[in-house]
Amino acid sequence: MIALHLAAFAAAAGWLGARGIRELRFWGGLLFALCGWLQVQYAHWQNGSIFLLPLALWSWERFRARPQAGPMLICALAFGWISGWNLYFSVMAGTALAGLALYAAFRHQVPPWRLLALILLSVLVQVPVLLRYAQLASQVGGYFPWDWYPATWTSWLMRSTRPSWLEAHFNFWPRAREAGIEANGFLGFAWAGLALASVAQRRARLPLLWAVLAYWASLGPGHGLYDALALLPGWDGLRATGRLQLAVAVATLPAIFAMLEERSGWRRAVPLALVLLELWPAGPALRAQIPQTIDGPPTPLERALAAGPGLVLPLPEVTSRAQLAVLRSGAPLMGGYSGRAPLEHDLVYDLAVRKRRSLELLLDLTSARSVLALDGFRIEEARRSPRVRERGCYDALGDFVCLFDVLQPPPPGPRVALGRDTALHSALWPGGLVVEIVARRAGLLDFSSLARCRLLRVLKFPLLPAFEHDLLIEGRGFVHIAYAEGEVVYHKEIRGDWARWHRWLRLQVSARLQCAEPEESGAMVPRGVR
Question: Which residues contact 436 (CB under 8 A, 6 or more apart)?
Fold first, then answer.
């Protein structure tokens, strides 16, 4: 953590110095290293990347001042290597580089061919990582974000895990209601007020424009800007749009210090003191308590799972506590998520939790070999079922759970695989796009096919190539799990403002289901179904 703060301090101070802020550049580095975004996100691994944005912007200022081969190469490396650290930071940096290049070309600050060469070099640096992302995207089709974790209009006052010193000692101090850790982007009244006051400075207006756009994008889908940016590569893969608030802190930094650089004495010291006072936390960061049994010998539950026959189905749903309790067993546990859930897991969650369907139905769908019952209702249901046999009940970090072995496999019969045994129909209506996937044969839903499919929305403007981006495939969209020929398997309505003016723009909107089917060799072959 100390090295992280020092790197953030040095990168921000160097960037501000390159922008002509000489006297207060180290104060700017200090504020950035203590910024509210870093405080509220300290439990996330992306904190290790916070210094990358000011470092890349520092290299841009050096290149803009001297657009030669050496600074160009350094700038391309500084922007390009971010993709190997963090996707969010890479998308933010790439968008910033494109915007800065367009502005520099418009103002004739740098020859256009040098700007084009810089962007191409930056892309070349990212190619090894981008190929990995492309490979991953082709393999995780059907993943669905449980939440976008967007910012809100009051996120600039939100902080999690610990209050500020002012909030802890003055009950009347305003504090926004938390909306999830990813939505927090604490700036504070003093920081935000200085940013607004800096509008009078001409050289502060462009950074402030970037800050406004970044905050707008952080609000996520449904607010306009993010919906447009999601058409660009990378943007549609961001599930925690609230993280974009880091760009707000970065962009407002040069605006604030461009204004303070023009002041002296108390007119400079008092605003800095107010910002530091408001950023100061009330106490040390909170730490999670790790159970002591994690470092001990395997528990009876872990030994039972390790000796199990295969896939374990936790019911009603897998919790983080249950995951921790079975972590060392190595058992293939169905469920769990980190912002995104595989479609098959979300379908099980929908059936088991939202609709409370029977154990027999879930066993027919998943072909699980064991059942881990985590609450009293599912324990009693499993004990009454002739298809499972109780192996034992155990303590799972204080929770009472029972493990059952599956005795009877699913009944034989045809399976309806997405892509191979379905047809997709889409139609526009005044409010948006309706998508239906229809069975072309009778049978039970092929659970294994869900992970291989992606639903894409296709936008086609005249004389332009088609734009495609992923649509969410949600478990709740499946009507049931057994179908007759011609019956609807999946139904989805996609609403959007574009549906109102698509005729005026001559915009063609459709959907496409892209699936990958295993060959005999095990390779995955893309298969598209319209």
Answer: 424, 425, 426, 488, 490, 491, 492
CA gap 200, 203 in Å, rounded: 9
> Residue 127 CB: number of other CB atoms within 10 A?
11
Q: What burial letters (b/e) apply to 416-431, b meaning 16+ CB within 10 Å?
A: bbbbbbbebebebeee
Task: Count the Cβ atoms, other than its own, within 10 Å of residue 310.
Answer: 11
Integer angstrom CA distances of residue 246 from 46, 252, 391, 508 = 11, 10, 50, 36
Q: Is the bond preceding residue 291 a cis peptide, omega within 30 degrees?
A: no
Q: Does the pLDDT of residue 94 top 90, yes or no?
A: yes
Q: In angstroms, rounded to a whole number, what is the distance separating the alpha carbons of residues 461 and 459?
A: 7
**pLDDT at 434 (0 to 100):** 87
Whole-angstrom distance, CA of residue 312 vs CA of residue 305: 8
**What is the per-residue pLDDT across 54-81, written as a single tens digit (0 to 9) for each?**
999 999 999 999 999 999 999 999 999 9
What is the torsional sign of CA 196, 198, 202, 206? negative
Residue in the block written with tokens 């407002």: 252
Are residues 427 and 434 in contact, defined by beta-carbon separation less than 8 angstroms? yes
HEC string of 353-383 equals: HHCCCCHHHHHHHHCCCEEEECCHHHHHHHH
- With b for 16 or more beta-carbon neighbours within 10 A and e for fewer, the 99-118 pattern comes to ebbeebbeeeebeeebbebb
CA distance 275 to 256: 11
Instruction: Report how far apart, in Å, the C-alpha atoms of 285 and of each of 32, 34, 233 are.
Output: 18, 13, 36
Question: What would the pLDDT profile of 464-487 be if each residue is shown by its tens digit?
Answer: 888 787 777 888 889 888 999 999
